[in-house]
Design a protein that fits this description.
This protein is α+β, with helices and mostly antiparallel strands. Helix content is about 40%, strand content about 25%. The strands form 3 sheets. The protein has a 6-stranded antiparallel sheet with strand order 1-6-7-4-3-2. The chain has a 3-stranded mixed sheet with strand order 5-10-9. Strand 6 and strand 7 (about 105-110) form a beta hairpin. It is globular and about 55 Å long.
């Protein structure tokens, strides 16, 4: 059994979307082929991204069937909600849910393609002065998300697209099926930031900007971020840890 929901602005793609489960589309590029598969495709000169979700555990098949929306459904509705709140994201085109024996089996999410670079790739080898400007604009963006009650639980630097216009940076979120909505405290905000997956120097410059803009205690921002990294066992070790610590102290003195 298949369930299709197509954005009203893309009804002209209905026949093409209905052929997606049969993999009757052109694969221009494979972005990811691990737990889930993400590919770039096109139809009628329009570039789009198709994400196929891996079949979850039997328990989650039950959950997605009767208790909460499945991942492709959440990605679709989260995108609409983000746009309504004025946050850039890839426009959702459709979602497809496949059921087997009455239970969720797998699904697809189709969206427009954003060609902009990711935050992670942009930060690589960026001069310090440019990194400060990028960090400032990104801190402003992050603060606006929390003020709007948006909690991205996959706030990874590879899931944040960046454009530069007239010396200012603008950001868009992708891979948005894991989101929550509501008020946050500093610890919860830093738990989100911890997932940025930036180098220690890059992360610390951003934290200093965020603390300054939001009038937060920098040491608390630092503590919560790295505490959650320790809990996830993604903390940098050895010399990189010391370099990060010395850098944050230097930032505190400036």
């Amino acid at each position: 059994m298949m369930k299709f929901l197509i954005n009203k602005d893309y009804q002209g793609l209905e026949s093409w979307i209905h052929a997606i489960p049969e993999e009757m589309f052109t694969v221009d590029k494979v972005f990811c082929k691990d737990r889930n598969q993400v590919v770039l495709t096109h139809f009628q000169d329009k570039k789009m991204v198709i994400k196929r979700y891996k079949r979850p555990t039997f328990f989650n098949c039950i959950v997605y069937s009767f208790i909460r929306k499945s991942k492709p459904e959440r990605a679709f509705y989260n995108a609409l909600k983000l746009q309504k709140k004025g946050v850039d994201t890839a426009t959702p085109i459709a979602y497809i849910v496949k059921k087997r024996w009455g239970l969720y089996d797998t699904g697809w999410f189709v969206s427009e393609y954003l060609k902009e670079p990711t935050l992670k790739s942009l930060c690589t080898d960026m001069p310090k002065e440019d990194l400060k400007k990028l960090s400032y604009d990104f801190a402003m963006f992050s603060m606006s998300l929390f003020k709007k009650g948006i909690i991205d639980k996959d706030f990874n630097s590879s899931n944040i697209m960046v454009t530069e216009e007239a010396g200012n940076y603008h950001f868009a979120l992708v891979d948005i099926n894991r989101m929550e909505w509501g008020k946050t405290n500093l610890a919860q905000q830093m738990r989100t930031m911890e997932r940025l997956d930036l180098k220690p120097m890059e992360l610390n410059v951003f934290l200093s900007m965020y603390a300054d803009i939001c009038k937060k205690d920098l040491e608390k921002c630092y503590f919560f971020t790295y505490w959650f990294k320790i809990k996830r066992r993604t903390i940098v070790r050895g010399r990189e840890w010391l370099k990060a610590r010395f850098h944050i102290l230097k930032v505190c003195d400036t």
